[in-house]
Structure formats: C-alpha cells, structure tokens
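Input (structure):
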C-alpha cells in the first residue's frame, strides 16, 4: 500500500476513492471500504488527521487496518481550517479529480464537505458528469438492535467501559498496540509476570480497570490473558498510564517486541489495595474470571 501525507504529491491516476475520518473503521465504514475495493479501479482511502483528538484507532492502527482490507493508496490529510474551507466544487476538481484521479467516489448518505459543510451527496452527483466520475452512496448500517453504527456511539461505549458492545459495532475487538517495555518487575515478585506497554497519547482509552484480553504477537500467535489498564495505585508514586498484561500459558522474553492487546470484556475497576498480599489474592480472582469469560467466548 502506498501512503501519502498532505496533498503535496504527484497526481494519482484512475482510482476509486472512499472519504472519511474512518475512526475505528467500524462495520459501517467497512461497507464503504468493501465497495471501494470491489471497484475496477485501484482502491484509495482519503482520510484526515485531527491533531490533539483521541481516536479509537491511532493513525498507525488505522493505516494498518486499511491495508489489510485491500486499500492500495492511503492518503492522510491534516484537518486544517484551510483544507476544510475549500468551496465544494474546488475540492471535487482539485483534490478528488486532479490529485486523486477519482473515477469512482464512495461516500455515506450523510457525507458533507467543503466550506461550511455545504457540499453533500447531491453536490457530488451534480458534478459527476462534468468531472468524469461515478458516485456510489452507501446507506447507513444498523446493528441487530436497530442502532445506527457510528464512531460517536462506539466512542461512548468505550468511554463507558461497554467493551462488548463496542466490539460488536467495530466488527473486531477494541485493542491497544505497542512495544513491550520494562516495568517495575512487581508482577514477577508476586509470581504474576506481566508484559507492559504504554498507550499512545492520542489513543481513546476505556476506564481504568481489569479486562479479559487476547494478545497477538509479532508472529500472529494468539494467547489469552488478563490485563490492568491504569496507573498502579497500590504501588504508589506518579505512574504513567500503562497496560500490564498477564499472558496465560506463555513463557519467554518479549521485551522490545510489538504486541496487540484485544479487550474482550470488562472485569472490574482499578483500585488501590492495602498491601501486596491482598493485591495478589485479587489477581488470582481476576485470572479465574478472565479465563471463564474467554472460555465462554471460545478463546
């Protein structure tokens, strides 16, 4: 997959373009992506980077997922006032057609663009013949319960700790990825070794607490485990937000290796314990609960 940042690159010719923020690339987004990939033209995703905003997927996670889904050209544009202030026809002419070579444009029914968000699907349809592209409009997808699948709804589920509901609408497990770092070695002292990663600052996080998880290593090997997201209040000090994962039935050194931690279900909030002995007993209880949850879900 070819990646482009901004709009200062050589023009792409003859592409099928899907457009959106694509935060989380949820099931609704995948309808757009799948329609784009099915096109006879190379599939291109035009997406945006909003500095300072926390996202379901980091930029790297979104890029990786787009590639896995068959996107061939990935164009990431900083969400600047200047870019979003273009007149709708200027955006169509200069960006979609001239820069991206759009022969097919795939958007959702509520897509808005251009100055004051005055451009919409009717605008795209109006100029399609003049600029030589086919417009495909994809209806909103609803869940089995009749809920419109949206990034806004998924973000709320994640923020509220409703991980199972978020996962259902995402079409995959919410996850945090990162490189395993050296921690305080407390886990080893209480015979519960953990792999520790620090989430990126722009990652939308669920509530601090303990979760049943799956862990995917660099070799795509999958393990189950229990993880604590938070600041380790029992050990004291000013600790950064971290994710500590006890991987079941795993032995080996994975320091400095990348892992993906998929959140399967919430177990309990993070809390401070009076001493390490009490903490260890609680972890043993958490492990049993996580194993029961994971087994029930076929992991």
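Output (sequence):
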């Amino acid at each position: 997959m070819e990646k482009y940042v901004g709009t200062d690159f050589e023009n792409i010719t003859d592409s099928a373009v899907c457009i959106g923020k694509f935060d989380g690339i949820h099931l609704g987004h995948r309808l757009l992506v799948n329609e784009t990939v099915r096109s006879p033209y190379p599939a291109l995703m035009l997406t945006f980077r909003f500095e300072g905003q926390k996202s379901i997927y980091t930029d790297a996670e979104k890029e990786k997922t787009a590639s896995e889904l068959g996107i061939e050209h990935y164009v990431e544009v900083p969400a600047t006032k200047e870019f979003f202030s273009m007149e709708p026809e200027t955006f169509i002419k200069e960006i979609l057609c001239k820069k991206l070579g759009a022969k097919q444009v795939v958007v959702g029914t509520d897509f808005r663009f251009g100055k004051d968000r005055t451009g919409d699907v009717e605008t795209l349809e109006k100029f399609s013949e003049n600029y030589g592209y086919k417009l495909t409009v994809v209806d909103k997808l609803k869940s089995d319960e009749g809920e419109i699948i949206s990034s806004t709804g998924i973000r709320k589920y994640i923020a509220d700790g409703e991980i199972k509901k978020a996962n259902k609408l995402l079409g995959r497990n919410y996850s945090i990825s990162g490189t395993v770092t050296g921690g305080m070695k407390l886990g080893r002292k209480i015979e519960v070794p953990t792999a520790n990663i620090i989430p990126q600052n722009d990652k939308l996080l669920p509530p601090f607490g303990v979760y049943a998880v799956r862990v995917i290593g660099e070799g795509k090997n999958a393990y189950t485990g229990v993880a604590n997201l938070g600041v380790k209040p029992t050990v004291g000090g000013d600790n950064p937000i971290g994710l500590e994962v006890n991987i079941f039935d795993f032995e080996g050194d994975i320091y400095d290796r990348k892992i993906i931690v998929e959140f399967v279900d919430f177990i309990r909030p993070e809390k401070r314990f009076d001493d390490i002995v009490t903490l260890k007993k609680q972890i043993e209880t958490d492990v049993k609960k996580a194993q029961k949850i994971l087994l029930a879900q076929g992991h």
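Notes: The CA atoms of residues 158 and 206 lie 5 Å apart. The mean pLDDT is 90.
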